[in-house]
Amino acid sequence: MVRALVLYHSLFGNTKDVALSLAKGIEETGVETVCLSIDEVIIEKISDHDFLAIGGPTHMIGLSKEMKTFLKKLNSVDLQKVKGFSFDTRNHSRLNKKRWFILENSAARKIEGKLKRMKVKIIKPRESAIVFGREGPLESDVALTFQEIGKEIGTILGS
Ligand SMILES: Cc1cc2nc3c(=O)[nH]c(=O)nc-3n(C[C@H](O)[C@H](O)[C@H](O)COP(=O)(O)O)c2cc1C
């Protein structure tokens, strides 16, 4: 049985909603899927999974303080056999375009970089969901979009 773990940090609940949509999509393909906040997960159990998605809100064009701390803790885990994906929530910004590279307004870019450095195989490039203001709401089509992304990931994992 393929096992997937979706982890998130969320201050106002938007990234949590995105994580739940993603997990729902993955689960629909028959993959056993668990969705947890970074505070709930037991670090040592992460490597029991075949797939790990991590998502967080974009703060100061990068990671939230909590996500930075969590990613440091990940160093104690061997993720070399785990497949991965990253996502974030963020506002509309001219820095959202990937050509801005170093200045890209994206927590997911930093999470993806960290996963790659830990030798995680990225099976799908990072994705972002747009929120209005700091507290949301999310753009209207986000739930469906991330459910579809989840299905795509589940299909890759199952094949
Ligand atoms: C301290 C702080 C800094 C933020 N900095 C940015 C930023 O640099 N770029 C951006 O697009 N959004 C920024 N935002 C908006 C967040 O991305 C938004 O609050 C988040 O996506 C909402 O997700 P959540 O409900 O899961 O916390 C910031 C929000 C906070 C609270």
Structural summary, described in words:
This protein has a single domain (3-158), classed as Flavodoxin domain (Rossmann fold, 3-Layer(aba) Sandwich). The protein is globular. It is built from four helices and six strands, in the order βαββαβαββα. Strands 1, 2, 3, 4, 5 and 6 form a six-stranded parallel β-sheet that branches. The longest helix is centred in the C-terminal third of the chain and has 17 residues, at 142-158. By secondary structure, the protein is α/β, with parallel strands linked by helices. The mean pLDDT is 96. The chain binds flavin mononucleotide. Flavin mononucleotide binds at residues 10-15, 57-61, 89-91, 93, 105, 131, 134, 136.
By CATH, the architecture is named 3-Layer(aba) Sandwich
Bound molecules: flavin mononucleotide
CATH topology: Rossmann fold
Terminal Cα separation, in Å? 12 Å
Q: Can you tell me the CATH superfamily?
A: Flavodoxin domain
How do the strands and helices of this protein lay out in sequence?
Elements: E1 3-8, H1 14-28, E2 32-37, E3 51-57, H2 65-73, E4 83-90, H3 107-117, E5 121-122, E6 127-130, H4 142-158
Parallel strand pairs: 1-2, 1-3, 3-4, 4-5, 4-6
Flavin mononucleotide (FMN) is lined by residues 10-15, 57-61, 89-91, 93, 105, 131, 134, 136.
